[in-house]
């Protein structure tokens, strides 16, 4: 195990029952690590960034506007609604996933302000309430899109349905019913989430799921 300190880099290893500690030359360590083969593999489309946080993969991707057939419940019966969803930011770290909206279709930068995604079943910090859809998969190249599909094909209940729309703060689903024929989501209806993209990139908020 390598420990990095401000004044030294230390290698710790166990030789049988004996624990030994050595100072390490940082240039030698850099040269050694530079020869280790590494690759991200094939990345999903529209990936904004990838990294590691608390020993877990962190993946953030841009989701462009798209007409989607969403399922809601009314009197405990499934009800389909077709709307064009706004541009979104979808991220996963470990088994925690977060979703936000953007008020522009432009590719975001670190200082881009994020907005509450206009969907029920999402906590105020962007994390997902999966309900009875099953355990979330570990975020990785091969699973990030799978979990996004699971989110959009789940049934959107009335849980966390409020404070997602300027026009109808009591129910974003009621707002959906007014935009079924729109070619684009009215971005002016989105509410700010008081968070910038850089905070997702730095891994903030993934330990707290609410």
From TrEMBL:
Designated name of the protein: PRTRC system protein B
Superkingdom, natural source: Bacteria
């Amino acid at each position: 195990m390598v420990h990095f300190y401000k004044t030294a880099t230390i290698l710790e290893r166990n030789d049988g029952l004996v624990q030994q500690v050595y100072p390490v030359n940082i240039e030698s360590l850099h040269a050694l690590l530079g020869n280790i083969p590494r690759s991200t593999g094939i990345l999903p489309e529209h990936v904004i960034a990838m990294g590691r946080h608390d020993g877990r993969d962190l993946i953030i991707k841009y989701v462009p506007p798209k007409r989607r057939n969403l399922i809601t419940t009314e009197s405990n019966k499934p009800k389909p609604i077709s709307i064009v969803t706004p541009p979104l930011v979808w991220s996963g770290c470990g088994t925690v996933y977060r979703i936000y909206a953007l008020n522009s279709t432009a590719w975001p930068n670190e200082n881009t302000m994020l907005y509450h995604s206009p969907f029920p079943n999402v906590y105020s910090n962007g994390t997902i309430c999966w309900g009875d859809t099953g355990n979330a998969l570990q975020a990785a190249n091969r699973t990030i899109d799978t979990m996004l599909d699971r989110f959009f094909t789940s049934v959107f209940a009335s849980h966390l349905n409020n404070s997602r729309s300027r026009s109808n703060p009591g129910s974003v689903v009621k707002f959906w019913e007014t935009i079924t024929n729109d070619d684009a989501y009215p971005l002016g209806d989105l509410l700010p989430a008081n968070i910038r993209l850089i905070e997702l990139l730095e891994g903030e908020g993934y330990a707290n799921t609410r």
